[in-house]
Known about the structure:
- With 144 residues, the chain is α+β, with helices and mostly antiparallel strands.
- It folds into two domains: 9-74, VC0802-like, CATH 3.30.2130.10; 76-139, VC0802-like (2-Layer Sandwich).
- The protein has helices at 21-31, 57-66, 87-97, 123-132; strands at residues 8-16, 36-44, 47-54, 70-81, 102-109, 114-120, 136-137.
- Strand 2 (36-44) and strand 3 form a beta hairpin.
Amino acid sequence: MAEKKYIIKQVSIFSENKPGRLAAIAHALEEAGINILAFSIAEANGFGVVRALVNKPEKAHDCLTKLGFMVSFTDVIAVSMRDEPGGLYEIAHILGDAGVNIEYSYAYSGKDAAVLILRVDQVEEGIDRILAAGGKLLRVDQFQ
C-alpha cells in the first residue's frame, strides 16, 4: 500500500479570468506568509483555475476563502525525474503500463533535478508503481 507521506495537498483556486486576479491571490498569500512552491494556471470559459503547491495549504485555503475565492484541495504526487531527454518518458511509461491515467501535470526544473507534479486517477497505485520502478517521489514534508 502506498505511503501517505507522498500524497501532497494541492490548492486549487477558482477565479474569473481577468486582469489582477492572480495578483490578488499572490498578494493574499504573501500577506499571510505563505510561500508558493509551484503553480499552474488553466483557463476555460472565462474562468481560471490556479493550481498551487504551497507550504501551508490549510492556511492558504482559509485565507483565500475569506477573500471570496472558491478553493479546494486535490491530492497530487511529485516525482523527481531526470532533467534531460527521456526523463518525462520514463515516468509516463511507468504509469501508462500500470493503467494509471495522468489527468494533468505541471513541472518545474531546479538546479539539481526536475520535478513533475501529477494528478493521477489512482494516486496510491501511481505511488506504488513509481517506487517499485526505482523512481523517487518527494515527500509531503518537503513542501512545508
